[in-house]
Amino acid sequence: MSLRIRLSEPTEQIAEGLMNQKASPTATIKSLKLHPSVFENDDLRDLTPEEMDQVAFDEPEIRLRGYGDEVRHRAPDGKRFTVRDLIAAIEATELKTRHQSEWFEGIDTHHTFFEGIRQQEDGSWKIRWGS
């Protein structure tokens, strides 16, 4: 899965000869979306509606942390998070806190490949992003 971030300004090339892009220090996040896909048979495919409806986290609340502050989420049904619910919670966390990240003096728009969540000693869950 990858996080698609739309900024108030276009990204800039980090260095000539590299494809890597960076956000301007003055850019702000306009929107972001986590595209639900999985790597299968040497290719990416979208998750099916049935996969999106499977239980992903069997607790009524989750505390997520990306590159910024912790954000607390309640399960929409008050019991558990489906894959769809968890994706929405991750998007909400990133929308609220991604601006706290810094990569080449701007918002980190490079580390956007979702690598999972890992529980921390304090019980919160760290969102892991790769490039």
Verbal overview:
- This protein has 131 residues and is mainly β.
- The chain has one domain.
- It contains two helices and twelve strands.
- Strands 9-8-12-11 form a four-stranded mixed sheet, with helices on one face. A two-stranded antiparallel sheet has the order 1-4.
- The radius of gyration is 16 Å and the shape is globular.
- The mean pLDDT is 95.
Blueprint (SSEs and pairs):
Blueprint: E1 2-7, E2 12-13, E3 21-22, E4 29-35, E5 37-40, E6 43-46, H1 49-52, E7 55-57, E8 61-65, E9 70-74, E10 81-82, H2 83-97, E11 113-119, E12 125-130
How many extended strands?
12
Oligomer: single chain
Strand content: 35-45%
Tell me the number of structural domains. Answer: 1
Q: What value does the Rg take, in angstroms?
A: 16 Å
Total number of helices? 2
- Low-pLDDT segments: none
**What is the end-to-end distance?**
11 Å
Helical percentage: 10-25%
Report the order of strands and helices.
Answer: EEEEEEHEEEEHEE
| Mean pLDDT score | 95
Q: What sort of overall outline do the alpha carbons produce when their principal axes are compared?
A: globular
Provide the spatial order of strands within the biggest beta sheet: 9-8-12-11
Helix/strand-derived class?
A: mainly beta
Largest sheet: 4 strands, mixed
